[in-house]
Design goal:
Elements: H1 7-17, E1 26-27, H2 30-36, E2 39-44, H3 54-62, H4 67-72, E3 74-77, H5 81-93, E4 97-102, H6 107-115, E5 119-123, H7 127-141, E6 144-145, H8 152-168, E7 174-178, H9 183-195, E8 200-206, H10 211-218, H11 242-249, E9 250-256, H12 258-272, H13 278-288, E10 298-303
Parallel strand pairs: 2-10, 3-4, 3-6, 4-5, 7-8, 7-10, 8-9
Antiparallel strand pairs: 1-2
Length: about 325
Amino acid sequence: MADPLTFLDVRAAAARIAPFAVRTPVLTCADLDRRIGGQVFLKCENLQRVGAFKYRGACNALLQLDAAALARGVATHSSGNHAAALARAARERGAAAHVVMPNDVSRSKRAAVAGYGARIVDCVPTMAARSAALAEVVAATGAVVVHPYEDHRVMAGQGTAALELLDQAPELDLLLAPVGGGGLMSGCAVAAHHLRPGLRAYGVEPSGADDALRSLRAGAVTPVAEPRTIADGLRATVGANTLPILRRHLADIVTVDDEAIVRAMRYLWERTKLIVEPSAAVPVAALLEGLVPCTGRRIGVIISGGNVDLDALPWSAEVRR
């Protein structure tokens, strides 16, 4: 069965969002190359609008809504980056945005969402609670749901990051990206495999939120009841729409623990001068831990976001996790 998400969808999204999204730079780091024995190309989506790749998908989705749909407003659930992206995209299109957020998200992400004008609805930090609260919001407002990863318009938008990366750094052998709900990895893998069929794509997720790995092994969505990880953007459960794409396109999914994530995050801050959030450091942690074959390879990495709570840096002596 063909993927419901195609390269043509990604290419159309790229044209659609080009006037709005940033064409983010690709950076390299000689020390990282030396450590892993390959050549790494960092696609800096931490420099995207709202500080994360999520703007690509939200923008693509909002640009496809007609006036009647926009008048109803949009709604979603999100731990932060998709919420901010949808809120900004909605503001740019003159639409109201309603966002269900777990009550444990960082203050900085919550403030960003509020700053873009969205109405925030709190819920407990479980996927069941998020889904239930979103259903209540939609019932009360009639808003159009723009899901953070199960929406094919969103997936296509996220895939434009890989489209750009392969234009900026052709002939990649590997592509790594973090996996939460799987929208980024789905869109990027579809785009990458069309442009470079021999490329091997690896998803990376925290060991405390390894639902994607479990789901790939089981062949069905297999949630983690209480995901526990510093990478708050990756606590979502892989979706029914993203899982088939991941199963078809991924070479594998690997997991890293929080200690490795923090080490990679700090390494990126110190060596590349990039401000990245924990979720963005996850694929670099996999490289530094030797979990994928790197020697002599050209490796693209999606640095997914840079929205960090500066009052709670994970290596600060005052912070206890």
